[in-house]
Amino acid sequence: MNILFISMSLELGCKDLYCDLIDSLLKRNHKITVVRSLPNITNTTFQQQESGLSVLDVKTGDPFSQNLFKKGLNQIMIGTYLKRAIKEYLLKENFDLILYATPPVTLAGVVKFCKEKYHAKTFLMLKDIFPQNAVDLGMMSKTGIIYKYFRNQEKKYYKYSDYIGCMSQANLEYVLKHNPEVKKEKIHIFPNSIEIDFTGKTIFNEDKTVFMFGGNLGKPQNISFLIDLSRRLKGYSKAEFIIVGGGTEQGKIIEYVTNEKPANLKFNRRLPQEEYEKLLQTADVGLISLDPRFTIPNVPSRMQSYMKLKKPILAITDIATDIKGMILDNDCGWWCDARNLSDAEKIIKTICENKENQKKKGLNGFEFLKREFDVELNADKIEDFYCNRNERKN
């Protein structure tokens, strides 16, 4: 296949679900052209690289700006910039498959253009249900014009997609329930996946339990809950927290660390991938935290990064997500309702009192990862989709 991969931002060469998928497809001798937005470059550039990979870097506004107005405006405009660049640099190319993800939902126009121009199949990796997530967090009203604009874009995304890949069963059921016009036969389970390449030794601290949270620090991550948890456990020496990342809510952590100087919580800003994984190896338990107001089923990709390093998971989430079932059914961690701080404190103390249980659940998570979240399984799904569509076409 000749694949066009459209991305709001993609750091090639790193180890994440998109780069791992690209690497897997390249190893299968598919050609891939990545079109990505980069706000910090001077000019749009096109570069052909080795091993069947080409990259079109498009200068855009910053879609991750901490200023919410600028962030929204840049996400609205990003499709215009990408479409213009594709017309200028890739108009004479031929593509068999268009691969893209949410966020954002504002690339519907680009997808439609590419679908019609190249007569290609379209494959959506649904990682975010927007704008409903913003409504859940009180950032947007369903009666407002902004919501209506983004909701219309979301529906167009589904309309132009031949394959909609959802992260979980609850995710899939939510999309069908709230978008009855979407045909059931084009929506499938396509979970977050990674290359399983960890061969190192799993480290566990014997005298304490280190809980680590890594990734985006925004409103969805319920950062205030983690801070309150640290406060409640400040006299409990067996639990320690490490938070790594950046985002709109990082100021709350910086203020807490600066003013209260908690002995049980350490904060690091975003780290390079290699440094982050080294730090994660020193932790005992991976943390997932989601705002309890969510009505959409989120499945954070950090879950797979924890399991890859054989770390058990403590998920403190809303009740809409099916993470609870994944973790408890596969005995790879613990779950707590994000509305109950007292329960979270009790669960953490229970975790800290049994190191062998931590190790057992970490190994169970690694086996779960191999069964369900190996990137090769998702590469198979992409190939099967393309082959089956062509067979029906012929």
From TrEMBL:
Which domain of life does the protein's organism represent? Bacteria
This entry's Gene Ontology molecular function terms read: glycosyltransferase activity
Q: Which InterPro entries match?
A: Glyco_trans_1, Glyco_trans_4-like_N
Keyword Chloroplast carried by entry: no
Identify the residues that the record assigns to the Glycosyltransferase subfamily 4-like N-terminal domain, covering every copy: 20-197
State whether keyword Transferase applies: yes
Q: Which GO terms describe its biological process?
A: lipopolysaccharide biosynthetic process
The residues covered by the Glycosyl transferase family domain are: 201-362
> Which Gene3D superfamilies does this UniProt record tie to the protein?
Glycogen Phosphorylase B
What protein is this chain from? Glycosyltransferase WbuB
Lineage of origin: Bacteria, Bacillati, Bacillota, Erysipelotrichia, Erysipelotrichales
